Structures are given as structure tokens and as C-alpha cells.
Hints:
Blueprint: H1 2-21, H2 25-38, H3 43-55, H4 59-72, H5 77-89, H6 93-104
Helix pairs in contact: 1-2, 1-3, 2-3, 3-4, 3-5, 4-5, 5-6
Amino acid sequence: xxxxxxxxxxxxxxxxxxxxxxxxxxxxxxxxxxxxxxxxxxxxxxxxxxxxxxxxxxxxxxxxxxxxxxxxxxxxxxxxxxxxxxxxxxxxxxxxxxxxxxxxx
Length: 105
């Protein structure tokens, strides 16, 4: 049962990365929304959705989703890097610095 459960949520992630590669960000976000609906604690789904939102220029939503990914998995450096870069690009330099400093502690 565990293997099926794991594969059940890995498949949408693979599909989403494929859609992202093709530039179909809105379709990827729709699949992420469904994945999050059924597995709301899957941190990587929020992270990948944040990346897609970035590509669509929706930076505030992107930052929110990186933050949710961090809440569910505070040990993944990629989540902090994504959020920190987004904050920096939006001119929120001190928030980006604070985020990285807190992560390093």
C-alpha cells in the first residue's frame, strides 16, 4: 500500500515538471492544485507550484507557496533559496537576508 500511495503522488509531479518544461505553466498549476487537494502536506507540490507562479509573474503568490513548502519541510534548502531569491527580486532585501540567516541557525 505504501508503494502505491507514494507512486500515486509522484506521477502528478513528473507530469507537472513535463508541462513546465513545455511552458504550460497554467496546466501545471491546475495539476498542482489537485495534488495539494489530495495531499496537502506534500511540500514539493507547493514549491513546484511556486516555480510555475514565478514564470507567470505572480511573485506574491509564489512567495506564499514557498513559505508553505517550508512549513511542511523546513529542512529543504531549495525552498528557502526559492523564497529568498523571490524576495530579493521584489526588492525585499532585508526579508531575504533574515530568511537565510534564520535558516542557517
